[in-house]
Amino acid sequence: MTDITDRQQLKYIAAQAADARVNLELETEGMTLNIGPQHPATHGTLRIVAKLDGEQVIAADPVMGYMHRGYEKLTEVRTYPQVTTLINRIDWLGSFANEVPFILAAEQLMEVEAPPRAQWIRTILFEMSRIANVVLFLGDMAVQVGAVTPVFFAFRDREHILNQIEAVTGGRFHPNFDRIGGLKDDLPAGWVAETKQVMKKMRAFCDEIETLVMGNEIFQARTRGIGVIPADVGLQYGLSGANIRASGVDWDVRRDNPCGLAYDQVDWKVWTHPDGDSFSRFWVRLQETREATKIVDQLLDTIPAGPVMAKVPRIIKVPAGEAYVETENPLGVMGYYVVSKGDLVPYRVKIRSASFNNMSISPWLLKGVYVPDIITILASLYFILGDIDR
Amino acid sequence: MGLVPGLIKGLGVTGGTILRTVFPDGLKKPIPAPSRGAETVQYPHEKEEPTPRARGVIALHEENCTSCMLCARECPDWCIYIEGHKEKAPPRRAGGKVRQQNILDRFDIDYALCMYCGICVEVCPFEALFWTPEYEYSEPRIADLLHDKSRLSEWMETVPDFEDYEAGSEAKKLKVPPT
Amino acid sequence: MISSILASWNDDYWVQTLLRVAGGLVGVLLIAGTLVYLHLFKMVSFMQSRLGPMEAGPFGSLQLLAEVGKHLQKEDIFPRKADRFVFAAAPFVILASTFLLVVVVPAGPDAWFISNDVGIYLGLALSSVSVLGILMAGWGSANKYSMLGGLRATGQLIAYELPLILAVVGVVIQAGSMNMQTIVYAQANGEIFGWDGIGNPYILTQGVAFVIFMIAMQAELTQAPFDMPIAESELVSGYMTEYSGMRFLLFFIGEFATAGVFAAVASVLFLGGWWAPIPGLEIDDNAWNLLGPLLLIGKIVVLTFVVFWVRFTFPRFREDQLQRLAWKFLIPLALANIVVTAIFKVWI
Q: CATH number of the domain at A79-360, out of 1.10.3720.10, 1.10.645.10, 1.10.10.10, 3.100.10.10?
């Protein structure tokens, strides 16, 4: 519960080395523990093979692929509207965010620009899916660490966002709303006022979580100093999103390369934290949720009037070419590399999903930690299996 | 407030939630009413109202359908089965050409496969398919989830009117054909 | 004739023993069931903005019976490599320690199971038998997760026995006896600086010991924030993973029964047990025999409310943080409390 001094740390390491020598002499074996693929902690079917020495991890290897659904192969035989439907299901908690980079890449190939009203509403829905996704993280990390109540609050308050998304798109989890050239439909009357009320409720939820989880000394003892990722190591492993911002790297694709979305019309801030441990990852995501509610409020006030769909032909044939667009999705940076040969279907779509790269740091990060810390670190990295395996 | 440890404040949050659930009117009227204070709905005794745009089930307006097969082609799951035949219809006015009409024999949607994506409703050029927010049609047998033409026409009664749009929109409000 | 039979029952050793055994079983199980309904089904549901089970019986009151029925009709599974005797005996060992602990708790001036001069010492010794049961469950399951859970539990439970005992020593010094009935009378007849309006419940003078006892009790029950042995998000269910059906239900009921019995012990030691200051009325022993158990149950409900409130709010400690809390913080604090109590008792 108190900080460990350097001298204590050196003593501990020397004691461990002495133990290891004794173990060699006595030939005690370590234990191989298989965490998953069916497990309450891993967010889906992730398997981690951990070699333990007592309660300490010697090596941990994630085994991915239990939820591989073959998205990239499927996109080779689906038309563009059908692909938009399918890719909703990659990151199923913030599902509108999956459609956006694909549609932007296709719009680049077709050289079509969506009208400003469509870009505004796209940004609003994008930020709302970010709030929906990260609100679940805030509750979920608490439950991985042991507190069962915050996740109920998270689900309860997430319902408000899902109801608003349903009021516009018709679907709570799978909106299927983005189209090449704009959006499928416009906002129903009264939606702007209701969404402002919902943003107030989400801010109240953030305050509740700050008191209940972040201010809790036990939570801080479990997460401070655990799973420290130095900035250069994180960048080498391809970490993105809040994981790398919590290590002090000021990188946000929304600000640096908005690709037509309305982020440059709004006054907002990128949150970073210098520590790089699990607590700072939680802290950064909490601040980002609050920031997202402020972005949505500002955007709701300034929606421009106009059409919501540009002029595109009924049957969409994207001209030949290649385009790569990345956006700052709730889990990290998601990118779609679309190769088209001028057909109704794409020739090849490569999906750069954030969680796959975020998981790649786990063998390095999990060496030498205790078994409970495995769960804390994985929870703080925040991956979704649909995003890892596609 | 810096002296109160975070543990006690956390207990205050959960204790406050207990009080808010049991006494939804505040502590000034201490009548316990948890059924009102809870945020959950006791289905099937009470039901929530989905929004008018909610994608519950698809309804078919048979008169508008011309068996163009666009919906069956565009469905990502190929769950729409259409069969039709052509018939000769009398000319519209005397001395005119004999017309050809497409008669719909079979229009089934298999809701065991349907992804509820809405591509079929969107691509229909003749506005024959509509979304309704009805969701209570689960069956004990999977085969009963194949809704045939008559059942799909029955769903037309539950189609809500299209909503007005927000200020600043240029979209035109569509009309639901009367059944 | 009937009155003579009843009179002979009063003196017959075997009839008295049978009555006490039945009373103990029924009392513990009824209290466990009430606590499950009140706290697990209703209180935690209200804390999470939901209503909890509502279908089985009015307001879900028969849910526990429904769960018992559900568990009874499940298949009795033994893991293939498990040691059958150890695996089967483990829940009974834990339950045995709970039922034996309840015999030291008095519920009224004449409503007690045993009354001897090592009351609380005997109770604490009996309660530590559950450590054996948990270790048996962990080892007998032939499952690495359960083994980890069992080992963690052993370390934790042994570590927290000490603050538990040391916290009680302060009360024993103040009451002057280890007999639970004497402790209740000491609180009933005691005075605070000369005023005897509410007796002398030891929660006032032994507040520090009360807090230590509650923390140690939480750890002994392996409830969050000390539920590393169960640690649902890591070890699935810890030492209970391989148990299903009725065997799991024995663990489950045992958990709540132990919570109730520990709370009963705590209320006897610190809150006055079956006695409460009722102003104005002169209550004789016969009436206390009826009122006492009700008051005791009320105090049990209040204390377990606090236990479960804390359980469902806080995250869990890691094993080394847990041990550090016990050895470096609670034990020195309890020892300091004993020293201060002894000084006050001897010189004031």
A: 1.10.645.10
Q: Rounded CA gap, C281 and C11, in Å?
A: 32
Domain boundaries along the sequence of chain B: 6-37, 57-81+107-158
C237: which DSSP letter?
Answer: T
Size of interface A-B (CB pairs under 8 A): 109
Q: Which letter does DSSP use for residue C327 in this model?
A: I
Q: In chain A, where are the structural domains located?
A: 79-360
B6·A79 Cβ contact <8 A: no
Backbone torsions φ then ψ of A224, nearest 5 degrees: -75, 130
All residues of chain A having their beta carbon less than 8 Å from the beta carbon of residue C323 are none
pTM of the full structure:
0.87
Distance of alpha carbon C216 from alpha carbon C210, whole angstroms: 10
Token duo for residue B119: 């591509």
Name A339's bridge partners.
Answer: A322, A348
Q: CB-CB: which of A142, A147, A371 is closest to C234?
A: A371
The DSSP-derived string for C289-312 is HHHHHHHHHHHHHHHHHHHHHHHH
For strands A31-35 and A47-53, give the pairing.
antiparallel
**Cβ–Cβ under 8 Å, residues C310 and B11:** yes
- The predicted complex's ipTM stands at 0.86
CB A264 within 8 A of CB A153: no
From the list A40, A142, A370, the residue facing C232 with the nearest CB is A40
C-alpha to C-alpha distance for C94 and C247, rounded to whole angstroms: 12
Going residue by residue through chain A, which has 390 residues, state the pLDDT in tens, using 9 for 90 and above: 456 677 777 877 777 776 665 545 444 567 777 777 777 665 778 888 888 887 788 888 888 888 899 999 999 999 998 999 999 899 888 889 999 999 999 999 989 999 999 999 999 999 999 999 999 999 989 988 888 899 999 999 999 999 999 999 988 899 989 999 889 888 998 899 999 999 999 999 999 999 999 888 889 988 998 889 999 999 999 898 899 999 988 989 988 888 888 888 889 999 999 988 999 999 999 999 999 999 999 999 998 888 888 888 888 888 999 999 999 999 999 999 999 998 889 999 999 989 999 989 989 998 888 888 888 898 899 888 888 988
Alpha helices in C83-118 (DSSP H): 84-101
Vertex C163: Cα angle to A369 and C252 (nearest 5): 70
**Peptide bond just before A37 cis, omega within 30 deg:** yes
The amino acid at residue A279 is F
**Over C125-164, what HEC string results?**
HHHCCHHHHHHHHHHHCCCHHHHHHHHHHHHHHHHHHHHH
Token digits for B91? 């000319």
Do residue B170 and residue A305 have CB atoms under 8 angstroms apart?
yes
Q: Residue ranges per domain, chain C?
A: 77-347
Q: Are strands B146-147 and B129-132 parallel, antiparallel or unpaired?
A: unpaired
CATH 3.30.70.3270 is right for the domain spanning B57-81+107-158 = yes
